[in-house]
Amino acid sequence: MTIPTVDVHAHVLLSEVDQLVEGLPGLAAARELDARRNGAEALAVNGGMIRERLPLLTEVVRRLAAMDTEGVDVQLVSPSPSHYHYWADAEVARAMCETANTAVAKHCAHAPARLTGLGLVPLQHPGLAVQMLDHALSEGLAGVEISSHAPGRELSDPAFEPFWELAAETGAILFLHPFGCTLDERLDRWYLSNSVGQPTENAVALSHLIFSGVLDRHPGLKLVAAHGGGYLPTHLGRADHAWRVRPDARGCAHEPSHYLRHLWFDSLVHDPHVLRELVRAAGADRVLLGSDFPFDMGTTDPLAALRAAGLTGPDFHAVRGGNAAALLNLSAKEPR
């Protein structure tokens, strides 16, 4: 049996969602916050970058051609995080998530053997998030993409317990992908909002899930962290020490590093030495190939980035696609 090459971190831009929220009062405030967090220089660069990549983000034929060039057999396609819109009220949030879920399913239906999709849920409305996870699964999607927090709610919030429970029961994939950083204007120059902010948000979100005991209560969760989990997986020694010596840090049953073996991480860390350490810390069976297709903060050659880590043959092929194929229940495909 051959193993497909599977990229679990690839995005789609949904014009249907943009049209639905355009002109709503909350959108202007959200864009103002985004501008403050990123800074004017970053926003100017982002506009051109998105325009240049728009065909790859929207056209299935162009996506498949790029996948062929990269040697990728299967993509797990998630909405651009710009579609989260966690400012929306319940009515708008329901319409937006249903629209996004249906649009992603339609996009992937053009090439079902090569594209598997993820939908969206409104984290700002935990009860509705449960319903929208159900909706995403009913559309044939593998799960949903979530950010690192919602306004006023961390992922450790007890209100999310029914959401975690349903995700664990159904085997839904939860792709943890931050959008924006709460350090705000401190990161508004030199694109620190992304290069520092995203890995910070990953680390904070995963820490809330670990220390609050969410992973103890829902051991069946299939949670994949983008960007290699940010700073967390390779810097857990301090957290383990806090857990051992401080009773106020002991909200989980085991040392924090124990839970790395109960999560999945994509390989997008931009450094072969860090990737090797991620594999060591989490285990080769917990790392999945990721490219952040087609954004500029990703890689256009995820296999080359993986080869640079110098993993053993079995570990290389596990990360290349074996782990994702098992996680997504993919049928065997010819590797490239």
Architecture overview:
This is Aminocarboxymuconate-semialdehyde decarboxylase. It is an enzyme of class 4 (lyase). Pfam families: Amidohydro_2. There is one protein chain. The longest helix is centred in the N-terminal third of the chain and has 20 residues. α6 runs parallel beside α7. It is built from 14 helices and ten strands. By secondary structure, the chain is an alpha/beta fold. The chain has one domain: Alpha-Beta Barrel (TIM Barrel), CATH 3.20.20.140.
List keywords for this structure.
globular, two-stranded antiparallel ribbon, 8-stranded parallel sheet, disordered C terminus, 336 residues, TIM Barrel, alpha/beta
Number of domains: 1
Fraction of residues in β-strands: 5-15%
Give the % helix: 40-55%
Number of helices: 14
CATH architecture: Alpha-Beta Barrel
Helix vs. strand class: alpha/beta
Distance between the termini: 14 Å
CATH class: Alpha Beta
Q: What do the pLDDT scores average to?
A: 96
Enter the CATH topology name. Answer: TIM Barrel
H and E string:
EHHHHEHEHEEEHEHHHEHEHEHH
Instruction: Flag low-confidence runs.
Output: 332-336
Tally the beta strands. 10
Q: What's the story with the biggest beta sheet?
A: 8 strands, parallel
Q: Tell me the overall shape.
A: globular
Give the spatial strand order of the biggest sheet.
1-2-3-4-7-8-9-10
Query: Can you identify the CATH superfamily?
Result: Metal-dependent hydrolases
Specify Rg, calculated over alpha carbons: 19 Å
Enzyme class: lyase
GO molecular function: aminocarboxymuconate-semialdehyde decarboxylase activity
Pfam families: Amidohydro_2
InterPro entries: ACMSD (IPR032465), Amidohydro-rel (IPR006680), Metal_Hydrolase (IPR032466)
